[in-house]
Amino acid sequence: MGFDIDKKGEHVKADEFVKEMKDRHEKAKIALIMFQEEMKRYVDRIRKEAGKYRVGNKVLISTKDFLIELMKRAMKKLMEKYIGPCVVKKIISENAVELELLVLLRIHQVVNVRRIIKYHEQVEGQKKIPPPLVKIEKILDR
């Protein structure tokens, strides 16, 4: 009396189920690997390398995610796209750098490289022409 574990019988339905589950598992693994490779290709296409930034380089920082209150501006559409220049103090990783920022900005000094661009000095002899001043004679109501 009792149950013999070592006894092997013919369990056709169970064997078919096991084979089907193994097949599905393999197909799922292949699909996940293909999806991971596709996502890596997509992300690598837009990823910037921190290797092109060196300690001491001047960069501009994007104001895209800054709050309006932080920039003390009335409208976001009138804000500058980039502010700076800021100096790269330290390279943290391939995707992050530490900047020497103004205390007035009140943001974290470690910034993702997607939020910065290289600052190019003006060429010697290049003039910085300010926009002409316009005198407003009268404001018309709508």
Describe this structure in words.
- The chain has two domains: 12-46; 50-118, Roll (SH3 type barrels).
- It has helices spanning 12-46, 68-71, and strands at residues 58-62, 82-93, 96-100, 110-112, 116-118.
- 27% of the residues lie in helices and 20% in strands.
- The relative contact order is 0.13.
- The protein has a five-stranded antiparallel β-sheet, with no helix packed on it.
- The protein has 142 residues and is of the alpha+beta class.
- It has two helices and five strands.
- A hairpin with a 2-residue loop joins strand 2 and strand 3 (96-100).
- The mean pLDDT is 82.
- The protein is elongated, with a radius of gyration of 30 Å.
Could you say which overall geometry the principal axes of the C-alpha atoms support?
elongated
The number of helical segments is 2
Report how far apart the termini are: 100 Å
Helicity range of the residues? 25-40%
Q: Write the CATH fold name of the largest domain.
A: SH3 type barrels
Class by alpha and beta content: alpha+beta
Highest-level CATH class of the largest domain:
Mainly Beta
**Rg of Cα set:** 30 Å
Order of helices and strands: HEHEEEE
How does CATH name the architecture of the largest domain? Roll
Query: How do the strands of the widest beta sheet line up side by side?
Result: 4-3-2-1-5
Strand content: 15-25%
Contiguous low-pLDDT stretches (5 residues minimum) are none
**Total number of β-strand segments?**
5
Mean pLDDT equals 82
The number of domains: 2
Biggest pleated-sheet summary = 5 strands, antiparallel
